[in-house]
């Protein structure tokens, strides 16, 4: 009987850890990722076809603000406050998990000009944009963070 109780307690502890650890890791990085997005990992990460699609989608949907080189200097960036994120020459991508990026691309960012793409890009297209972003300079550390996330 004691072994059953101990086994059940261990199972409960493991399930709790599985649910809580990704959320705690995100909080340590200063990310506030809502439950529907927390712990997600990119199913298209490293896929050359997804990276190609993501690059085209970025140019169509994001370059106006973030710039053709993803440097935050697109033609629509003039006068925006805060300025659009610079993905190619900063630590922006390195500081964030794929789950956080997917959340922001999906829902936008209040207090900025960043819109929601939830209604205009399908899930796999938003993941493709993130796969493309991870190929930019200085994105390597973020890729390591996202590989630690769980589904």
Please describe what this structure looks like:
There is one protein chain. This protein has 151 residues and is mostly helical. It is 49% helix and 0% strand. The chain contains 6 helices and no strands. The chain has helices at residues 2-28, 48-61, 63-66, 98-107, 123-133, 140-147. α2 (48-61) packs across α5 (123-133). The radius of gyration is 18 Å and the shape is globular. Residues 18-28 and 141-151 have low confidence and may be disordered.
Give a concise summary.
This protein has 151 residues and is mainly alpha-helical. The chain contains six helices and no strands.
Features:
151 residues, mainly alpha, single chain, globular, disordered C terminus
SSE blueprint and pairings:
Elements: H1 2-28, H2 48-61, H3 63-66, H4 98-107, H5 123-133, H6 140-147
Helix pairs in contact: 2-5, 4-5
């Amino acid at each position: 009987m004691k072994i059953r109780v101990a086994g059940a307690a261990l199972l409960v502890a493991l399930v709790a850890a599985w649910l809580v650890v990704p959320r705690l890791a995100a909080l340590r990085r200063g990310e506030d990722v809502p439950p529907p997005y927390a712990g997600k990992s990119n199913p298209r990460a490293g896929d050359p076809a997804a990276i190609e699609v993501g690059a085209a989608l970025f140019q169509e949907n994001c370059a106006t603000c973030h710039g053709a080189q993803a440097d935050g200097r697109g033609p629509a960036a003039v006068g925006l406050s805060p300025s659009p994120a610079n993905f190619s020459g900063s630590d922006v991508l390195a500081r964030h998990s794929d789950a956080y990026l997917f959340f922001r691309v999906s829902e936008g960012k209040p207090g900025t000009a960043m819109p929601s793409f939830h209604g205009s890009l399908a899930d796999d297209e938003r993941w493709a944009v993130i796969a493309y972003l991870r190929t930019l300079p200085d994105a390597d550390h973020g890729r390591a963070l996202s590989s630690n996330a769980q589904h």
